[in-house]
Amino acid sequence: MKLITAIIRPFKLDEVREALTEVGVSGITVTEVKGFGRQKGHTELYRGAEYVVDFLPKLKVECAVAESSLEAALEALANAARTGKVGDGKIFVQSLERTVRIRTGELDDDAL
Question: Coiled-coil region(s) at which residues (predicted)?
Answer without folding.
Answer: none
